[in-house]
Amino acid sequence: MTIIMIILAVIGGATLSIQAAINGQLGSKVGVFRCAFLTFSVGALITVLLIFYFEPRHALTLLDVPKWQLLGAMCGVPYIVIMVFAVQRIGTAVATVAVIFGQLFMSMLIDNFGWLGNDVIAFSPSRIGAVICLGIALYFIHASGKDTAKTES
């Protein structure tokens, strides 16, 4: 089951890169906020249909959960707006790796300190090494894009 979840997460990440590339193009034509609005509107419509047809009944509703848990919904807005803006300027690869770097860094802090009700998973040399490797990857991907831009000019 773990392998299936990892594969699904990789597929999810791939779709985010596709979304970033498409939204970067759309945002340059219609505007960053209109593009973000379209993304959330279509996403909301699809999610309503998924809830209606596939979501099982739960003991709690959105009105019953701790209110701080509803704040997670607002985290998607800066992500979409930033990606639409950034992809136009630095490209899909650099923007995506930068997002993954931010996700990895923050998720390791959340794990290490058990923030937001999550189980504690302490820092380890291999986890810290992974962040460093991803930082190096971000540098090389960004630097190679600058090299390509110089040779094309």
What overall form do the CA principal axes indicate? globular
Q: Which structural class is indicated by helix and strand composition?
A: mainly alpha
Q: Tell me the total number of β-strands.
A: 0
How big a fraction of the residues is strand?
under 5%
The percentage helix is over 70%
The stretches of 5 or more residues where confidence is low (pLDDT under 50) are none
Rg calc: 18 Å
Provide the fold topology.
Blueprint: H1 2-30, H2 32-54, H3 76-90, H4 92-113, H5 125-152
Helix pairs in contact: 1-2, 1-3, 2-3, 3-4, 4-5
Explained architecture:
The chain starts with a helix and ends with a helix. It has 153 residues and is mainly alpha-helical. It has 5 helices and no strands. Helices cover 76% and strands 0% of the residues. The model has no long low-confidence stretch (mean pLDDT 92). The radius of gyration is 18 Å and the shape is globular. The longest helix has 29 residues, at 2-30. It has helices at residues 2-30, 32-54, 76-90, 92-113, 125-152.
